[in-house]
Design a protein that fits this description.
This protein has 14 helices and eight strands. With 315 residues, it is an alpha/beta fold. Helix 5 packs across helix 6 and helix 9 packs across helix 10. The longest helix is centred in the N-terminal third of the chain and has 19 residues.
Length: 315
């Protein structure tokens, strides 16, 4: 499909989405972060200053753990995507989660830089702020790409890697969430920065689940509310503009840390073949495929997927 046709299709999709619910019901201006904290920053949430941002983090588990686990979420997600994994790990491990720049309650980066090396330096800055010298990094989607880039750029800071449906290579999606399609169309920014049908968020979340019936109203509330955090929609547009697919793919072969690759067999966004590609490029890596799960397997079935993580940590 030509670029012009893609743009036209995007505009049509936007108009269809808005027409389906009406403009009045789609009107959704930014929300100040303070209005969202009561629901989405309950204990053990805290905010720490890193690189000029008030970063939303959760730091749980034994503080004497010499090798904490740092969990990194994907595009338009938040630290809450790891709730199930954290619950399964904190009895034996220090588990650190954060909302990365441009997402969740952390919100946009002051300098508007969303390039991959900047995200890697941000992860290390958070570790420094929390007194963590070395950690196991686990990331989903964009978070997986940030995790392995951190392992390449700061190898002494990463002991092991867990890549969950991770970005890194070019890919063609079988199906992409409508919200992502709209965010990539630059001239729609005046529209997408003020209008957001809740049904658009629902369809986007259902799109990344292997079993859409698992998507609850509470889950949609979370994605919807945190998308509206002031500055997040503009940051998403910027991130897509600054982040060509596969820009650093040639660096994957430089990864030397023990690596577990987890993939959802029903991932329609980043195809399972990319999991095979990671396994081929990372010497000694292991691949675990969950045939019935989608792009966010850690969220869709935390019990089964964290079990694979725990077994990997014991090796």
């Amino acid at each position: 499909m030509s670029k012009a046709l893609k743009i036209t299709a995007g505009v049509v999709l936007a108009l269809v989405a808005l027409a389906g619910v009406g403009l009045s019901r789609s009107w959704a201006p930014d929300r100040p972060v303070e209005s969202l904290k009561a629901r989405w920053a309950q204990p053990p949430s805290q905010f720490i200053e890193v690189q000029g941002m008030q970063v939303h983090v959760r730091d749980e588990g034994p503080r004497n753990d010499p090798n904490p686990i740092v969990l990194l979420h994907g595009t338009s997600a938040s630290l809450h995507t790891w709730d199930g994994w954290a619950a399964g790990l904190v009895s034996q491990h220090r588990v650190i989660r954060m909302d990365m720049p441009g997402f969740g309650l952390t919100g946009p980066a002051p300098d508007g830089d969303y390039h991959l090396p900047r995200y890697a330096s941000f992860v290390v800055a958070v570790m420094d702020r929390l007194g963590v010298k070395q950690a196991v990094l686990a990331g989903n989607s964009l978070g997986g790409e940030v995790a392995w880039k951190t392992a390449v750029d700061f190898p002494q800071r990463v002991s092991k890697l867990v890549l969950v449906d991770a970005g890194g290579y070019p890919f063609s999606s079988q199906s992409m969430p409508l919200g992502f399609k709209l965010a990539k169309i630059q001239f729609l920014r005046p529209l997408t920065s003020r209008l957001l049908p809740r049904s658009l968020i629902e369809s986007s979340v259902r799109n990344v689940y292997g079993n859409p019936d698992k998507v609850t109203p509470e889950l949609i509330d979370r994605y919807y509310d945190l998308t509206l955090r002031a500055g997040n929609r503009e940051a998403l547009n910027e991130r897509f503009a600054q982040h060509p697919l596969g820009q650093y793919a040639n660096e994957v072969k430089r990864i030397t840390q023990p690596t577990l690759i987890i993939w959802g067999g029903k991932d329609k966004l980043i195809p399972p073949e990319n999991g095979d590609h990671f396994q081929q490029d990372i010497v000694g890596s292991r691949l675990a495929v969950f045939d019935d799960l989608g792009h966010v397997p850690q969220e869709e079935d935390p019990a089964r997927t964290v079990a694979a993580m725990q077994a990997f940590l014991l090796r």
